[in-house]
Amino acid sequence: MKGQTYIIVTVVFALIIAIFAVINVEPVEVNYLFGTGRAPLILIILISVLMGVVVTATVGLFRLRTANKEIKRLRSELSGENLDPSTEFTATNSLDSGEKDRQ
């Protein structure tokens, strides 16, 4: 259900941007760092949205990559590959020591 909601919201957002862009077709003056120029406002709107999508996707992919590395690291720790058996700590040991402290 979450995936369907995401797709519906994305389509609605894309339609709103498309309608807004089509309504604004007159040429406007654009100031760049190195000069100025004239371009249709529809083109400016669509390029701005595209740049926003690219930046958002890049940040999302970076976060996903970082999360996947962390998951892989934690799974390897959980499987015992990186743990020294003499220093292994279990939840039952933690509960036992907590109960002893209270008594």
TrEMBL record:
<keyword id="KW-1003">Cell membrane</keyword>
<dbReference type="GO" id="GO:0005886">
    <property type="term" value="C:plasma membrane"/>
</dbReference>
<feature type="compositionally biased region" description="Polar residues">
    <location>
        <begin position="84"/>
        <end position="96"/>
    </location>
</feature>
<feature type="region of interest" description="Disordered">
    <location>
        <begin position="81"/>
        <end position="103"/>
    </location>
</feature>
<keyword id="KW-1133">Transmembrane helix</keyword>
<dbReference type="Pfam" id="PF06305">
    <property type="entry name" value="LapA_dom"/>
</dbReference>
<keyword id="KW-0472">Membrane</keyword>
<keyword id="KW-0812">Transmembrane</keyword>
<dbReference type="InterPro" id="IPR010445">
    <property type="entry name" value="LapA_dom"/>
</dbReference>
<protein>
    <submittedName>
        <fullName>DUF1049 domain-containing protein</fullName>
    </submittedName>
</protein>
<feature type="domain" description="Lipopolysaccharide assembly protein A">
    <location>
        <begin position="24"/>
        <end position="79"/>
    </location>
</feature>
<feature type="transmembrane region" description="Helical">
    <location>
        <begin position="41"/>
        <end position="64"/>
    </location>
</feature>
<feature type="transmembrane region" description="Helical">
    <location>
        <begin position="7"/>
        <end position="25"/>
    </location>
</feature>
